Amino acid sequence: VSRVDVACASLRRPLDPDFGRRLKGRRIERIGRRAKYLVFDLDDGLSWIVHLGMSGRLVYRQPSDPAARDRHDHVVVHLGRHGRLVFNDARRFGLMTVEAAAGCDLFARLGPDALDQDGFNAAHLTALKRHTRRSLKDVLMDQAVVAGLGNIYVNEILFAAGLRPRRRLQRTSRAQLERLVAATREVLAEAIEHRGSSISDFLDGIGRKGGYQWRRRVYDRADQPCPRCRTLIKAVVVGQRSSFYCPRCQS
DNA sequence: GTAAACCTGGCA
DNA sequence: TGCCAGGTTTAC
After folding, report:
1. Nucleotides of chain B within 7 Å of a protein C-beta?
2. Statement: the CB of A209 is under 7 Å from strand C
3. pTM over 0.70
4. Which of these, A5, A118, A144, A162, could form a disulfide with A76 (CB 3.0-4.6 Å)?
């Protein structure tokens, strides 16, 4: 990292005044992920941690790419002669920080990753069942229960599992929970294969749109026919978030 | 639990 | 003009 330009520090969490100083001069040794956070491990043991929020993008640009700055390019991380990483976020719901990943408070309350076979399974969900009246939608959206799922994919997972968003966890059988966990892996595998959902803002790390928006079965498809049975998709609000389901295929 | 807060942009 | 949006936190 040869230089860090901060055009706007007021993200969801205001950018630390030391952010640029901590990143400049470091070498990025590994790129990973923790739930919805991108994690760039640095050569001094700290990590550059990034969350894209709703409208954020982090895009690599070649040295030859035009230098023109967009109004919402808030942070530019220059990589010497190798180009730069540009963080753009119209709504500024994203955040970034440089700190030790171990003991990072952003990670403190995260549950098992949605793709972690050992952590996220039917037994994990069964253990929550006892004293809760929460809906499946609410439970899957809770990053402390299972980390990494957002509104689009929870809608798609519930459709794939044949379960309604408002169904109570308590009233969901072990077999249905097994189905739900399997559906999570299937939906995420397909979403990753198609590089995510570009419904309005999302671009991948090299500026390409994802393709999953063309494959979604129910999300934002109110009053359109279910791809399986042609019944019209319903829209409801669960926990302040829009939910979509097929009243025939999902129970 | 539920609402409101943080922001901008797009659409009816 | 008002309402909605891939997220998360904070306050009643």
Report:
1. 1-4, 6-10
2. no
3. yes
4. A5
